[in-house]
UniProtKB/TrEMBL annotation:
<dbReference type="InterPro" id="IPR029510">
    <property type="entry name" value="Ald_DH_CS_GLU"/>
</dbReference>
<dbReference type="InterPro" id="IPR015590">
    <property type="entry name" value="Aldehyde_DH_dom"/>
</dbReference>
<dbReference type="Pfam" id="PF00171">
    <property type="entry name" value="Aldedh"/>
</dbReference>
<dbReference type="InterPro" id="IPR016163">
    <property type="entry name" value="Ald_DH_C"/>
</dbReference>
<keyword id="KW-0560">Oxidoreductase</keyword>
<comment type="similarity">
    <text>Belongs to the aldehyde dehydrogenase family.</text>
</comment>
<dbReference type="GO" id="GO:0016620">
    <property type="term" value="F:oxidoreductase activity, acting on the aldehyde or oxo group of donors, NAD or NADP as acceptor"/>
</dbReference>
<dbReference type="InterPro" id="IPR016161">
    <property type="entry name" value="Ald_DH/histidinol_DH"/>
</dbReference>
<protein>
    <submittedName>
        <fullName>Betaine-aldehyde dehydrogenase</fullName>
    </submittedName>
</protein>
<dbReference type="InterPro" id="IPR016162">
    <property type="entry name" value="Ald_DH_N"/>
</dbReference>
<dbReference type="InterPro" id="IPR016160">
    <property type="entry name" value="Ald_DH_CS_CYS"/>
</dbReference>
<feature type="domain" description="Aldehyde dehydrogenase">
    <location>
        <begin position="28"/>
        <end position="493"/>
    </location>
</feature>
<feature type="active site">
    <location>
        <position position="269"/>
    </location>
</feature>
Length: 498
């Protein structure tokens, strides 16, 4: 079914029927200066709804609310770990109860398929709350012996919240990226000002409503939509103790510089250009399927996208033909159409950017084994899944993060040669190896400079696993048992026993 209003849930229709306000101190308010911006459906290029646009003034109010909610004797500061745990679990249940609604909002705002949003983004978001609900009561310290002759001490560590966290997130998994920051932050007792991406503010605003419904005290999570300047106002704000950012490496560098004013803590999840290495002894059917998933999942808009395929020469043609055939079979269409395999890109800007990379590669003599440098449809930001060969390592299509359904394939002969090529990038987020030889897979995996290495799989994931980047792919790790470290300060307490 095409996307018309009849397919929308009544709750979604009602959510889109009036301008959306921002959440500050438990209240839904307009921007002080009354400004709004439009959010657009990338399948139809039509405006969905207008959204309040936060200025530095609104950011200031939100930070003040987050500070007041953090400091004693606020209700939040007095909540016990068990109470926080139960609250987190309740929010997970509420998200699950509203899964279809979130999936529709995500599909409308981002373009992704409704089913992909429901079974992926929304399901994982709910699970994140439940996983971290367990951690809230398990943030333990250690007792540490001291050796001072003739005196007795009791020394121990405590994990304490950092304070006010500014969470700035992108548009590729809007709800999920917001939850990646909010969930560990509040598990540890911090408070948050969230700045969703300007392309996709809706699911974060709906989440704000559910947080209040679940009983999260006012000011603990504030949601201030806007563009980069709204994010920049947060990053510069002296009342913010930590910035948690996911987005481009370019903006990540700006954030690191801007945060230096009060030396706020910074964690960064940035871009990638993941190498995906197929050895001739691999299970080639699995490797082809993995290359297709790695290259085209979420319209290729993943920081861990397997964008650089390296294939050992003996099987190069076979693998290229397999991936190209699968790419050609992908049906591009509206995310509300059950027969679509892939939706549009998120925005006109991304559409132009991705197509210009494909065009640039063709102009430089590269070959399109699948796909096209032309828009896939007249209307909407659709791109045909593309596989490019005859590329050199110096071409932009091979060095830059494209963030679209574009994969390059390059042949290689030896392990040393492919490891050098794979690591020849400023990024280090993800990498993959396909081989039936356990020694080859683990040895090459260890040589790849990346925060996540997949062996004979791609996009396999769990909220229990840490993720993050080497090199210019970022600072810090999110999720898993390491995921709370960046949201806590470690305090050492030394008592003399007299
Ligand atoms: P971006 O990095 O500009 O935007 C991400 C978030 O940062 C948004 O919420 C944006 O409003 C905010 N922001 C922008 N400038 C800021 C500033 N100076 N201070 C604070 N916050 C700021 O990413 P954009 O422009 O949407 O996409 C450009 C490219 O970035 C993509 O083509 C892709 O290559 C990469 N990207 C990577 C992502 C990842 O997950 N690693 C996610 C999104 C984009
Ligand atoms: Mg930008």
């Amino acid at each position: 079914m095409p996307n018309d209003n009849s397919t929308l849930l009544p709750s979604v229709r009602s959510f889109l029927s009036s301008p959306r306000q921002m959440l500050i101190d438990g209240e839904w308010v307009d921007a002080k200066d009354g400004r709004t911006f439009a959010t657009v459906n990338p399948s139809t290029e039509e405006v969905l709804v207008d959204v309040a646009q936060g200025s530095a003034f609104d950011v200031d109010r939100a930070v003040a609310a987050a500070r007041a909610a953090f400091e004693e004797p606020s209700p939040w500061s007095r909540m016990t770990p068990r109470e926080r745990s139960h609250l987190l679990w309740r929010i997970g249940d509420l998200i699950e109860a509203h899964a279809d609604e979130f999936a529709q909002l995500e599909a409308l705002d981002n373009g992704k398929r409704v089913t992909a949003a429901r079974d992926g983004d929304v399901a994982v978001a709910a699970e994140l709350f439940r996983y971290f609900a367990g951690w809230a009561t398990k943030m333990e310290g250690t007792t540490i012996p001291m050796s001072v002759p003739g005196r007795a001490f009791h020394a121990y560590t405590r994990r304490e919240p950092v304070g006010v966290v500014a969470a700035i997130v992108p548009w590729n998994f809007p709800l999920l990226m917001a939850c990646f920051k909010i969930v560990p932050a509040i598990t540890a007792g911090n408070t948050v000002v969230l700045k969703p991406a300007e392309q996709t503010p809706l699911s974060a605003l709906r989440l704000g409503e559910l947080l209040l419904e679940a009983g999260l005290p006012a000011g603990v999570v504030n949601v201030v939509p806007g563009y980069g300047d709204t994010g920049a106002a947060l990053v510069e704000h002296p009342g913010v103790d930590k910035v948690a950012f996911t987005g481009s490496t370019e903006v990540g560098k700006k954030i690191a510089a801007a945060a230096s004013g009060n030396l706020k803590k910074v964690s960064l999840e940035l871009g990638g250009k993941a190498p995906n290495i197929v050895f001739a002894d691999a299970d080639l059917d699995a490797a082809v399927a993995g290359a297709v998933l790695g290259g085209y999942f979420n319209e290729g808009q993943c920081c861990v996208n397997g964008s650089r395929l390296y294939v050992q020469r003996a099987v190069f043609e076979q693998v290229v033909e397999g991936v190209a055939a699968a790419a050609r079979a992908i049906k591009v269409g509206d995310g509300f159409d059950a027969s679509s395999d892939m939706g549009p890109l998120v925005s006109q800007e991304q559409h132009e950017k991705v197509l210009s990379y494909i065009r640039g590669a063709v102009d430089q003599g590269a070959v399109l084994n699948a796909g096209s440098a032309d828009a896939a449809r007249e209307r909407g930001y659709f791109v045909t899944p593309t596989l490019i060969t005859s590329v050199t390592e110096a071409m932009a299509v091979q060095t830059d993060e494209i963030f679209g359904p574009v994969v390059t394939a390059v042949p290689f002969d030896t392990e040393d040669e492919v490891v050098a090529a794979a690591n020849n990038t400023v990024y280090g987020l993800a990498a993959g190896v396909w081989s039936r030889d356990l020694g080859t897979a683990h040895r090459v995996g260890a040589r790849l400079r990346a925060g996540t290495v997949w062996l004979n799989t791609w996009h396999a994931d769990d909220v229990t696993l840490p993720r993050g980047g080497f090199k210019q792919s970022g600072w810090g790790r999110e999720l898993g048992s390491f995921g709370l470290d960046d949201y806590t300060e470690l305090k050492t307490v030394i008592a003399e026993l007299r």
